[in-house]
Amino acid sequence: MLFLVISGNIDIVVKDRNDLLQKELDLMLGSDIVLSDSEEKANEIFMELKTQELEYGFRNPQYYNYSKHFFEFNTEIVNSELFKLIQKMPKGALLHAHDTGLLKADYVLNLTYCDYLYVCFQENNVNFLFSEDRPTTFCGTQWELVKDKRYSSSGAEKFDNELKKYFTLVTDNPKEVYNNINVVWNKFQNYFINTAGLFSYKPVWEQYFYDTLKAARDDNIMYLEIRSVLPPLYDLKGNVFDSIATAESYKKILDKFKTDFPDFFGAKLIYAPSRLVNVEVVKNYVEIAKEIRRKMPHFLAGFDLVGQEDLGGPIKDFLAELIKSSDEINYFFHAGETNWYGTSSDENLADAIVLGARRIGHAFAIVKHPLLLEEVKKKNIALEVNVISNAVLKLVEDVRNHPLASLLAQNMPVVISSDDPGVWDAEILSHDFYVTFMGVASKHADLRLLKKLALNSLFYSEISNKDKALHEFDIRWTKFIDSIVKDKW
Amino acid sequence: MLFLVISGNIDIVVKDRNDLLQKELDLMLGSDIVLSDSEEKANEIFMELKTQELEYGFRNPQYYNYSKHFFEFNTEIVNSELFKLIQKMPKGALLHAHDTGLLKADYVLNLTYCDYLYVCFQENNVNFLFSEDRPTTFCGTQWELVKDKRYSSSGAEKFDNELKKYFTLVTDNPKEVYNNINVVWNKFQNYFINTAGLFSYKPVWEQYFYDTLKAARDDNIMYLEIRSVLPPLYDLKGNVFDSIATAESYKKILDKFKTDFPDFFGAKLIYAPSRLVNVEVVKNYVEIAKEIRRKMPHFLAGFDLVGQEDLGGPIKDFLAELIKSSDEINYFFHAGETNWYGTSSDENLADAIVLGARRIGHAFAIVKHPLLLEEVKKKNIALEVNVISNAVLKLVEDVRNHPLASLLAQNMPVVISSDDPGVWDAEILSHDFYVTFMGVASKHADLRLLKKLALNSLFYSEISNKDKALHEFDIRWTKFIDSIVKDKW
């Protein structure tokens, strides 16, 4: 009798334990997705690959890649069978991406082979300028044609290798080189400064955007929302254009790309200038955004401010100005891209929410804010999470500690994005999906999470023809599933 | 008119923003504490010191210490005025502490000056044994009197410095030396293996415990719950005693200490043997716990299992056995001391909860488990958080990413403890309080948090005379506050 009672207790406890854990899995992002029979088969393939790798890492943490720096495992990822599947997988939309940080260093290096490109090397920086004649503007040292410099130096290969260092954060010993957050942010911001003269030459600007759209399409992305500071572009004659013209340039290229690739669903612009300015400048920014909307009503998705949040320009300072236009302009603020707690950068999260942001960029700090999490859920504000960016830019070392894990568990409205993948030599979105799936999400998180993340990216986008896009996604997803199931069975 | 409407909107938005953030502060752990006038004055002192240091770090992250490895800022902490205040502050109870990891390397080194101590150096390890005659047990190389070895070697100082390395994890370049979690855990576990023969000599064992109680009292701790594997002790004659005798040894020393220091509120034992065993051994463990309780009913606080959770011995395997005694023995399981998600180590959290644990050790992974967090709150299970331990043992690098921040924000039942502070050269509890307050908690978290954490440690303890202890805490706290206010005003 006693035995039976005890045995009963044990059964109840085991059931309680399993129920608790199962209820959590049922709560997790993606748990509402019901898989078809084919998807179940595909899921088996995904989970077999995932489990194998994770269990090996669990037993041998020295070989578990995702606890290392991204630069130490980036080159290994491309050999992963699971990564190859994720590359082929339709991923919906790319929603948090900065225009001139999307393509890899090799691509940027290739741009320096263009004619009429002058370079000026300074102590730790480089300037570029396209010009018919040798530029006369002051540059610290002297302007030389890249072509001349490349072939007059100690070999084009050595020259190119040196030049490429300006186009990437990748280094052999990242933990030593980037020993605090400001070091890596300095190098990161120098990338944009160093490449400014190269990219803002109108023909290069347009080519870069065209190739970005192509890279997105190649990575199985249907639609893109691109953040841009909209720098003034220039031409060989020395003409300089304004921010509106830069936006128009984007629109023109987008139209051309859609003609060339009618299966691509398009792109929209988030005007995102620097936050390190005063309120008068922000007022002017908003006017520019409105002007773009007037001229290209279907092209502007909205407005944001960029720059290392800890260094200043808290949204709070611009609250009075920004609230005036919150009914007219959609906001997509960066907020809480910090590991400080209780600082102005952390509290940007509250400002983004009260300003009615449609989505919040990063929101890394939001797990420390239970009420803000509630608000975000209630108002259905998507959080644009960029795991690899946060790791490279030193918010978190081991991606298993990324707050996204907790957001996924709480079924928060999350989209996965890539921020500036080219600067760390990642694919335009696949690496971020892969690291999220393998390094951040639960071992039990499966194909349903991946599908949900892809669907979320369309759902929380400002895409004009959302229903059509979702329908097309469904078709492509089914094709993808069928192709991998067919390969296997 | 329009101006007035807009201005009204702005006021509402600013109010919404401030309300949101204030409501979160009102939710935070410690927010229910009402400060007296004197405490308000003391709080000003605390917050002035805290704010000054944090704002400097916010502007100059290269100088912000708590993002570095603990070994890189440990020696600087002791110069902090705030740290000195925290040392003097009554901190209540120490609830998560492993008996032979509490005192610093210098103390351990000093023990090797005892007579009759033999040493045997192996390749990377060392063995100690007290004996009247040269030990005859096999040790790989040869047994020598420490005294002989110390003075026959190339100088006592050099010998001591070499020996001390076995007694600490501290090293000059921790990030390079400990490049994955298993490396640091190996070194950590070797500390316990290397010192076993030294500590389990009965007179040393008893002296170590007496000095631990003294260190706790000196660090303004009133009461201690000590985890022990209860190793067999031995004497010079070669007698070996059982685990029950080890517990009795503790009880005897505790009684002596309380006679010497009647203001100390005592200690209880959590029997916590290794988890890397089979279920039969666990069954035997539980019998030992019951036997201790029979013999010393007021000395045993409860039962736990120890060892690196990722390596095995998940609670799940012992569920059936452990549930049988859950009405008789209090459980204080280590669970979720991992940055894996969805693994057996992560899921130990669910097992600890269904087994009715009074408190959970570490619970590092619990922020990824919204339902387990709810259960813990509903059942009022305290989480014993050890920030510095988690940083040194490589669960998290930057303490600002420690999940404790989120637990504090959610007003979870948290106690701060120190795990094995001696092994990383920290004070017995003050460093953990300091790092929690400065590096983990919100910039806005103030004296109320510190007081709450101290009160929680008594509230969630198994102390016999809780009301009396809380009353005495109140007296000591008031004295502390008065002393610092008097110093300042």
TrEMBL record, chains A, B:
Signal peptide: none annotated. It catalyses: adenosine + H2O + H(+) = inosine + NH4(+). It comes from the Eukaryota. GO terms for cellular component: extracellular space. Keywords: Hydrolase, Metal-binding, Secreted, Signal. Residues 15-86 form the Adenosine/AMP deaminase N-terminal domain. Belongs to the metallo-dependent hydrolases superfamily. Adenosine and AMP deaminases family. ADGF subfamily. NCBIfam families: adm_rel (TIGR01431). This is Adenosine deaminase. The lineage of its organism: Eukaryota, Metazoa, Ecdysozoa, Arthropoda, Hexapoda.
